[in-house]
C-alpha cells in the first residue's frame, strides 16, 4: 500500500488516539509534577480601641492572578510522588527503622494509602490469574465431555458472568452475600455464627473480591481452552492411544502441550485486566478493607475537592505498573510480527 | 471408535457432571435469583427473619397484596428517571459503535495491507494504548474539558469512548482483513480502481462478519463502561451504569435498594439477548486472538 493512501486511511483513528490517549498521558505526566499555587498571604493590621493586632489574610486577587498566569501551578518535581499519599518515602524509612520484625513492618506499611492499594492490587492479580486459568480449564474439559446437544446452552450460561457489566455482576454477588442475602445466610449457618458479616471482616472481604474476580474471568479462560480443545489433533491422539498411552498420558503429552500457548495468552490478558481491578471495590463498598490503584485514582477525582495532582501521580505509577506487566506481551508481539 | 478402553470410568463421569452442575449454578443462579427477587419488596429480598421469604413472598403479600410487585421497576424507571439513563446509554452505544467501526475498518484495512515497517510500529503502539486502564487517562481529560467547557455532555463521552475503543477495534479488524485474500482488491486495482474504490466496492461487501463481531465488542465496551462515564458525564447525562452506582449512594439511605435491583435487572436484560443471538460471533471474537496465534 502506498504511503499516501495509508496515511489517509489511518488518519481518523490515529487522530482519535493521539488526541484522547497520547495527549492525556502527556497531560497526566505534566500534572503529576506540578502542584497548586500556595495562596498568597498578606498581613493586615487591625486597629481598634484596644490597640492594634496583626492578622493574616488571603490575598484573593493576587492568588487568582498567579493562578491565571501559571495555570499548571508551581513546579514540584517528584515531591508529590514521595508524599504520604503515594510512595511515602519518609514514612516508609521511619517504619523500617522502628519495626522489630518484617511482619510488623508490612502491617504498618499497609496503613499507608498507596501501599494498601498496591498490596491489594498485586495480591488480587496474582491470586485471581492462576485460579482463573485452572477454573477455566476444568470447565472447558467438563463442557467438552458433555453431549453435543446441550453444549450450546452450557456455553450460553457460561459466558454470562463475563459479558455482564463488571459493576453489575459484582453488585448481584454483593446482594447475595449480604448478611440478609442467601449466600450470607448460608455462610452464617455453616459458620454457626448468626452475626457473621462479610462486610465487616477484612479477610472475608478480600476473599469475596477474589471469588468475584475468578467468577468474572473464568468464562474467558474457559472459552479459549474450549476452542483449543476442538483443534487438538485427532491423529496424534489416536497414535498415542495405539502406542498404549493411558488417558492421563494422552492428556499430559498431547492435550496439554497443545494448550500451552493458549495459557500464556490467557495469563497475559488476565494479568493486565486484573491489575486494573476497580468496579468490584465500588460495588462491594469495600474501600475500608481493600483499595486498588484504579480505585485510588477514582477516589481522588470523585471527592468533594478534586485532587487532580494526586490522581495524576497515582495514574503515572499505575501506568508504570502496567508497563512492567506488559513487557512480556510486547516482546512476544515483537517476535511474532516484528520479523515479518 | 469408542472401544471399551476409551470409555470414561464411572468416577470420572460423575466428577465431570458434578463440575458442570456446580459451574452452571455459579454462572446462572445469581442472575435468576436477582431477576426473581426484583419483583419482591426489600423485606423479602433481604430478609432478616427467614431466607425462604423471598421464595414465598410473604412480606410482598403483606405490603402489596400480591406475591409479585413492580414497585422496584416503577421507582427506578419513573421516580428516579432511569429511562433517561437508558436513553443516554442507547445514544452513546449507537454513536460509539458506528464511529468506532468507521474509523476502525479504514485503519484496520490499511494496517493489514501495508507492508512497511511503520504499520507494525503503529500496531505496537496501539497495543500499549490498549493496556492503559481508562481511569488513568481521566485525570488527563478533566482539566482540559473544564477549560473548554465540554465536560458533562454526551458527545464528549462518545468521542472519548471511541478513542479508547480504537486500539482494540484496530487489532481485531486488522487480523480480520489479513484473512481476506489480497488478490481480491489488487485485481480490482489492476482493473483501474483507486485504493479507496477497491475498498468501497470489493472489500466492504465481504467484510460484514468481521465487522459485526468487532461491533459487538465495541458495543460491550461502551455499554459496560463505568470509569469514564462516571467521571465525565454530569447527572442528567449519565448512562445506565454510573446511574446505578449513584443509586447506591442515595437509595440505601431511603431504604429503596429495590430500585437499584430493578435497574440492575433492566440493564442486564439486553446483554442476555445479545449473548443469546450473537453467541457464535462472541465466541469467535474471544478466541480470534488466541487460537490463531
Model description:
The complex is a heterodimer of chains A (340) and B (293). Chain A has 340 residues and is mainly alpha-helical. Chain A is built from 15 helices and 4 strands. The model of chain A has no long low-confidence stretch (mean pLDDT 86). Chain B has helices spanning 10-37, 42-45, 53-56, 58-64, 71-79, 82-113, 117-131, 134-148, 154-178, 182-190, 195-203, 208-224, 227-232, 240-254, 257-292. The radius of gyration of chain B is 25 Å and the shape is globular. At the A-B interface, helix 1, helix 6, helix 7, helix 8 and helix 10 of A face helix 1, helix 6, helix 7, helix 8 and helix 9 of B.
Radius of gyration of chain B: 25 Å
Reading off the top of the CATH hierarchy, the class of the largest domain in chain B is best stated as Mainly Alpha
Number of helices of chain B: 15
Q: β content of chain B, as a range?
A: under 5%
Main sheet properties of chain B: none
Would you report the number of β strands of chain B? 0
Q: How many domains of chain B?
A: 2
Give the oligomeric state.
heterodimer
CATH architecture of the largest domain in chain B: Orthogonal Bundle
Overall average residue pLDDT of chain B: 86
- Could you tell me how far the N terminus lies from the C terminus of chain B, measured between alpha carbons in angstroms? 31 Å
Derived from helix and strand composition plus strand pairing, the structural class of chain B reads: mainly alpha
CATH class of the largest domain in chain A: Mainly Alpha
Mean pLDDT across every amino acid position of chain A:
86
Question: Quick gist of this model?
Answer:
The complex is a heterodimer of chains A (about 350) and B (about 290). Chain A is mainly α and about 350 residues long. Chain A has helices spanning about 5-30, 60-70, 80, 90-100, 100-110, 115-145, 150-165, 165-175, 180-190, 200-230, 235-240, 245-275, 280-285, 295-300, 310-340, and strands at about 35, 40-50, 50-60, 75.
Amino acid at each position: 500500500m502506498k504511503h499516501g493512501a495509508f496515511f489517509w486511511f489511518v488518519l481518523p483513528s490515529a487522530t482519535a488516539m493521539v488526541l484522547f490517549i497520547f495527549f492525556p498521558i502527556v497531560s497526566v505526566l505534566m500534572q503529576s509534577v506540578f502542584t497548586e499555587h500556595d495562596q498568597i498571604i498578606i498581613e493586615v493590621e487591625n486597629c481598634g480601641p484596644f490597640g492594634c493586632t496583626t492578622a493574616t489574610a488571603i490575598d484573593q486577587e493576587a492568588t487568582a492572578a498567579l493562578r491565571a498566569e501559571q495555570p499548571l501551578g508551581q513546579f514540584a518535581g517528584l515531591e508529590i510522588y514521595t508524599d504520604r499519599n503515594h510512595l511515602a518515602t519518609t514514612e516508609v524509612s521511619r517504619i523500617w527503622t522502628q519495626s522489630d520484625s518484617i511482619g510488623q513492618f508490612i502491617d504498618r506499611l499497609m496503613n499507608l494509602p498507596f501501599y494498601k492499594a498496591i498490596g491489594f492490587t498485586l495480591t488480587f492479580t496474582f491470586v485471581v490469574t492462576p485460579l482463573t486459568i485452572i477454573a477455566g480449564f476444568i470447565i472447558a474439559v467438563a463442557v467438552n465431555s458433555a453431549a453435543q446437544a446441550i453444549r450450546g446452552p452450557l456455553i450460553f450460561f457460561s459466558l454470562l458472568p463475563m459479558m455482564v457489566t463488571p459493576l453489575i455482576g459484582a453488585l448481584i454477588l454483593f446482594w447475595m452475600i449480604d448478611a440478609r442475602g442467601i449466600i450470607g445466610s448460608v455462610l452464617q449457618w455453616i459458620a454457626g455464627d448468626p452475626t457473621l458479616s462479610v462486610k465487616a471482616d477484612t479477610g472475608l472481604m478480600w476473599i469475596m473480591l477474589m471469588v468475584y474476580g475468578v467468577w468474572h474471568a473464568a468464562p474467558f479462560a474457559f472459552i479459549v481452552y474450549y476452542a483449543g480443545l476442538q483443534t487438538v489433533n485427532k491423529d496424534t491422539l489416536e497414535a498415542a492411544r495405539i502406542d498404549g498411552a493411558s488417558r492421563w498420558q494422552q492428556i499430559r503429552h498431547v492435550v496439554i502441550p497443545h494448550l500451552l500457548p493458549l495459557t500464556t495468552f490467557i495469563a497475559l490478558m488476565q494479568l493486565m485486566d486484573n491489575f486494573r481491578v476497580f468496579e468490584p471495590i465500588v460495588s462491594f463498598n469495600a474501600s475500608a478493607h481493600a483499595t486498588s490503584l484504579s480505585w485510588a485514582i477514582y477516589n481522588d477525582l470523585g471527592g468533594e475537592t478534586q485532587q487532580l495532582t494526586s490522581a495524576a501521580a497515582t495514574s503515572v505509577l499505575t501506568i508504570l505498573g502496567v508497563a512492567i506487566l506488559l513487557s512480556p506481551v510486547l516482546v512476544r508481539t515483537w517476535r511474532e510480527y516484528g520479523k515479518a | 471408535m469408542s472401544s471399551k478402553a476409551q470409555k470414561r470410568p464411572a468416577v470420572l463421569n460423575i466428577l465431570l457432571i458434578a463440575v458442570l452442575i456446580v459451574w452452571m449454578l455459579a454462572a446462572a443462579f445469581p442472575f435468576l435469583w436477582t431477576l426473581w427477587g426484583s419483583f419482591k419488596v426489600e423485606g423479602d429480598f433481604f430478609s432478616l427473619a427467614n431466607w425462604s421469604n423471598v421464595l414465598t413472598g410473604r412480606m410482598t403479600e403483606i405490603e402489596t397484596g400480591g406475591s409479585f410487585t413492580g414497585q422496584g421497576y416503577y421507582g427506578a424507571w419513573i421516580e428516579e428517571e432511569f429511562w433517561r439513563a437508558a436513553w443516554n446509554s442507547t445514544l452513546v452505544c449507537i454513536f460509539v459503535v458506528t464511529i468506532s467501526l468507521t474509523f476502525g475498518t479504514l485503519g484496520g484495512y490499511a494496517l493489514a495491507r501495508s507492508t512497511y515497517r511503520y504499520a507494525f510500529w503503529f500496531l505496537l503502539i496501539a497495543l500499549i494504548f490498549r493496556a492503559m486502564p481508562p481511569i488513568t487517562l481521566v485525570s488527563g481529560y478533566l482539566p482540559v474539558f473544564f477549560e473548554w467547557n465540554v465536560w458533562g455532555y454526551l458527545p464528549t463521552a462518545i468521542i472519548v469512548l471511541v478513542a479508547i475503543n480504537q486500539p482494540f477495534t484496530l487489532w481485531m479488524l486488522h487480523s480480520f482483513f489479513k484473512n481476506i485474500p489480497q488478490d481480491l482488491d489488487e485485481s480490482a486495482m489492476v482493473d483501474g480502481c483507486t485504493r479507496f474504490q477497491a475498498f468501497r466496492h470489493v472489500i466492504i461487501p465481504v467484510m460484514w462478519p468481521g465487522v459485526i463481531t468487532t461491533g459487538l465488542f465495541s458495543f460491550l465496551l461502551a455499554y459496560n463502561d463505568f470509569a469514564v462515564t462516571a467521571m465525565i458525564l454530569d447527572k442528567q447525562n449519565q448512562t445506565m451504569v454510573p446511574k446505578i452506582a449513584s443509586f447506591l449512594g442515595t437509595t440505601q439511605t431511603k431504604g429503596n435498594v429495590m430500585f437499584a435491583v430493578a435497574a440492575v435487572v433492566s440493564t442486564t436484560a439486553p446483554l442476555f439477548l445479545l449473548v443469546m443471538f450473537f453467541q457464535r460471533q462472541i465466541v469467535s471474537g474471544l478466541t480470534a486472538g488466541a487460537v490463531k496465534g
